[in-house]
Every structure is written in structure tokens, then in C-alpha cells.
């Protein structure tokens, strides 16, 4: 199933997608977009997959758009930056936020440009302590895209969002964790094992409920309290009809670990 630019591996309910252009710091080309899109859609549809992990090969997570592919504004043969967003990045961000399974972004090294913001669209971000996040855009005369202007003010607040966008300095993994931009910064030597353990833990969990938790939290951005309470009631109704809920309660009463099936 793996393509040339995105490696795909599955084991124990976890589908791992690895951006694989390490000599170009896993920069995004149209080929990467096509393979990543297909891989994510396949994982979402695959009943064997209960958790998705997105990571990068080599020393970077990704350097964002491959700048050699888009060229400069004077090159009439290259696509307009806005249309590249509409054709490739915006669909990718919408796809990631609509996936039914938990998506862990394992930021193994620098995440720059659009890649930093693709990470923020994922459900949980783990970063190696040596990794960093770089809103590189203003360095080359662009604005944060791929959802950056949406996630940053919500996750780290307006003042920090403005600072990281205008100065375009690296945000370290520990700073990102302290600011609430990511879930956890993990020491480099424990990074791979930690991501594996967390992914396995989620894959053994009540994944039907995870789908509903994701919907509830993601849609909260659009809602006032009354609408959100109504949404919780509807989604909880659905969760309460799952086999996993019955199993969770039975396991609690019988004082044993639950065996969740994800339905
Ligand atoms: C790269 C790249 C890269 C190509 C490193 N492209 N080769 C959307 C719509 C349309 C238009 C534009 O953009 C967007 C969204 C965006 O993502 S815009 C932002 C694009 N990304 C950047 O501006 C970041 C550019 N890269 C960097 O600033 C540095 O490479 C960082 C800080 C990420 C890492 O620095 P170093 O660790 O010093 O590595 P390096 O710069 O030496 O890079 C290693 C190689 O990777 C090198 O190739 P070479 O053949 O010389 O060894 C770089 O040219 C290549 N590379 N980023 N985005």
C-alpha cells in the first residue's frame, strides 16, 4: 500500500503514515498530497485501523510546501499560491479533521510552514524535545496557511499567535507544550516508544466513543452553549447504544479490565 513519498504500515490496530522525502525534509509536493490523501482515506475506511499515526522519516517532520515545486511569483508557469491551498492543503486539513479515528501526529523533528499547521489539525500532537514548530511563512513573504490562522489563536491565544506569525521564529517542543499548542513534548530517547505505547493504548480503547468525542470537541468551535449541550445529548445517546459502553460498565462492576471492540 505504501507509495514512494508516503510509507504506510499497519500493526495492532494502528496505521502509521510516514512522510518519506527525508533528503528534502519531507517537503510537500503534489505527489505527497495525493499519497497522503489516499492513505488517510483508506485508513479511515479500514475496519482493522483504530488509530492513525502521522510522522516523518529522517530528521524532520516536514519543511512544508516544497518551494522548488511552486517557484516564485514571477514564474507564470507555476500555480498561484491560493489555488495550491484550495486544491491541496485545504482538502487535506478538512480530511484530517473529519477522520473518524484518533489521529496522532508524531513530530519527530522540525515542522515548518504548512506542515506545522497540518500537525495542529491532528487530534494529539507528540513532539520529540529536539523538534520545533516554525511558522516560516513571513520569512518568505507569505501568511500562515493550512489552518494556522484558525488553530493558533484558539490554541495559544491571540498575542502568541501574532508573535509567532510575525517573527517566524522557531517554537521549541517544550514551549509548544507549555503554551497548549501540543499535547506532549517527549525526551528524544523515549519518543518512538512513547508514541507506540500511546497509539496502542488508544487502539485498545472504545474507539466508537473516540469518534463521538472528536465530533463533540471539534464542533464546539461553531456552537454556543445550548447547541453544544444538544449535540452532547445526541452523541451521548449514540455512545450509550454501543457494545463498548455495555462492556465498560460490566467490566467496572466485575472489577476487571474492559475488552473494547470499537463498536
Ligand atoms: C526544502 C525545503 C522546502 C524544498 C528544506 N522545499 N526543499 C502553500 C501554498 C503555496 C505556496 C507556498 O507555500 C505554501 C505553504 C508553505 O508551507 S510555505 C512555507 C514553506 N516552507 C518553508 O519556508 C521552510 C523552508 N525550509 C527551511 O526554512 C529550513 O530548511 C528549515 C528551517 C526547515 C530546516 O533548516 P536546516 O535544518 O538548516 O535544513 P536545510 O535548510 O539545509 O534543508 C535540508 C535540505 O532540504 C536542503 O536541500 P539540499 O539539497 O540543499 O540539501 C533544503 O533545500 C531542503 N528543503 N525545506 N520547503
Description:
This protein is of the alpha/beta class. It has helices spanning 30-45, 67-70, 81-98, 114-121, 148-156, 158-167, 173-179, 188-203, 207-219, 225-240, 243-253; strands at 6-11, 14-19, 51-56, 60-62, 103-107, 110-112, 124-128, 132-134, 170-172, 184-186. The strands form two sheets. It has a six-stranded mixed β-sheet with strand order 1-2-3-5-7-10, with helices on both faces. β2, α1 (30-45) and β3 form a beta-alpha-beta unit. The radius of gyration is 19 Å and the shape is globular. The mean pLDDT is 96. It binds ligand LHQ. Ligand LHQ binds at residues 24-25, 27, 63-68, 70, 81, 84-85, 110, 112-114, 134, 136-137, 140, 142, 145.
The average pLDDT is: 96
Structural class: alpha/beta
Distance between the termini: 26 Å
Biggest beta sheet attributes: 6 strands, mixed
Give the H and E element order. EEHEEHHEEHEEHHEHEHHHH
Overall 3D form: globular
Detail the poorly predicted runs: none
Bound molecules: ligand LHQ
Cα Rg: 19 Å
The strand line-up of the biggest sheet is: 1-2-3-5-7-10
Tell me the number of helical segments per DSSP (H or I, 4 or more residues long). 11
Task: State the helical fraction.
Answer: 40-55%
Please count the beta strands (DSSP E, at least 2 residues each).
Answer: 10
What amount of the residues lies in strands?
15-25%
Amino acid at each position: 500500500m505504501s507509495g514512494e513519498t508516503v510509507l504506510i504500515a499497519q500493526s495492532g490496530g494502528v496505521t502509521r503514515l510516514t512522510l518519506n522525502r527525508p533528503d528534502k525534509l519531507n517537503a510537500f509536493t503534489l505527489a505527497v498530497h495525493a499519497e497522503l490523501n489516499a492513505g488517510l482515506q483508506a485508513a479511515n475506511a479500514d475496519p482493522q485501523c483504530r488509530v492513525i499515526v502521522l510522522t516523518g522519516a529522517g530528521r524532520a517532520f516536514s519543511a512544508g510546501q516544497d518551494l522548488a515545486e511552486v517557484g516564485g511569483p514571477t514564474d507564470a508557469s507555476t500555480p498561484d499560491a491560493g489555488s495550491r491551498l484550495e486544491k491541496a492543503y485545504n482538502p487535506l486539513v478538512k480530511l484530517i479533521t473529519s477522520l473518524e479515528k484518533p489521529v496522532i501526529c508524531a513530530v519527530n523533528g522540525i515542522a515548518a510552514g504548512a506542515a506545522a499547521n497540518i500537525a495542529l489539525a491532528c487530534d494529539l500532537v507528540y513532539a520529540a524535545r529536539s523538534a520545533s514548530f516554525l511558522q516560516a511563512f513571513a520569512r518568505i513573504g507569505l501568511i500562515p496557511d493550512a489552518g494556522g490562522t484558525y488553530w493558533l489563536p484558539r490554541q495559544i491565544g491571540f498575542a502568541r499567535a501574532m508573535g509567532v506569525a510575525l517573527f517566524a521564529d522557531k517554537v521549541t517542543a517544550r514551549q509548544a507544550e507549555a503554551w497548549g499548542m501540543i499535547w506532549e513534548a517527549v525526551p528524544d530517547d523515549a519518543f518512538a516508544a512513547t508514541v507506540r505505547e500511546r497509539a496502542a493504548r488508544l487502539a485498545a480503547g472504545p474507539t466508537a466513543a473516540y469518534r463521538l468525542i472528536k465530533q463533540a470537541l471539534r464542533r464546539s468551535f461553531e456552537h454556543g452553549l445550548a447547541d453544544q449541550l444538544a449535540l452532547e445529548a445526541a452523541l451521548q445517546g449514540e455512545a450509550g447504544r454501543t457494545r463498548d459502553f455495555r462492556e465498560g460498565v460490566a467490566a467496572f462492576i466485575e472489577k476487571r479490565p474492559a475488552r473494547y471492540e470499537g463498536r
